[in-house]
Specification:
The protein is an alpha+beta fold and 252 residues long. The protein contains 9 helices and 4 strands. It has a 4-stranded antiparallel sheet with strand order 2-3-1-4. The two termini are 77 Å apart.
Amino acid sequence: MEETISLKEIYQTLKKHMLLILSITFFAAFIAAIISYFVLTPVYQSSSQFIVNQQSSQNSESEYNVNDIRTNVELINTYNVIIKSPAILDNVVEELNLDITAGALEKKIQVNSAENSQVVNIVVQDPDPELATQLANTIVSVFQDQVPVLLNVDNVQILSEAQMPADPQPVKPNPVLNIAIALVLGAMIGVGLAFLLEYLDNTIKTEEDVENHLGLPVLGVVAQIKDEDIRPAGARKPSLRMDRKRGGTFGA
């Protein structure tokens, strides 16, 4: 026999286990807040930019032509790889006297540029905001010095240097986002657990449960009577005695 569940039964299940659902939801949010504020290490971000720009020849008085721009854009893909190579990062580690390898430094760096743009962004993330700023600027500076040596071209110009903010704010973790995600996941787990408990509960509660369990129709139901609905047997006797007493007085 196919079993169906109505919206009323869903509501009753959620209402019955509401305390469990709320407890799991707020517990998940509490754990997320503790981890975000006290366990995870804040990470700060700093960025610098450079532009790939072919120097115009002295014999040309016109602006850059399309071929020059296309060449610069094609070089950017090569530059993105070179920036994160040991040829650049080893020099950065040596210049800043860092106690990390070039491979570890590479994981802190992101290199990106907009499509068909000659501008390249160097983004560095580190638990130390001052070090993140130094890394971003040093990487661009070292790369600018090494490009003529590696590719025999001198077409990199620093567009903007990374600046150390007065009040640096971490980019991660994001406590608000983590708590919001924990609230949603906690609510989903709580609701799922509520329906699981209801599914595993095989006690008989309704007439339909009796019919489904025994395969027999229900002929009668014993109503549940509360204590306050039961009137004491001798509740009206004092009133009767008073009526009789009054009747005797009038008769006399």
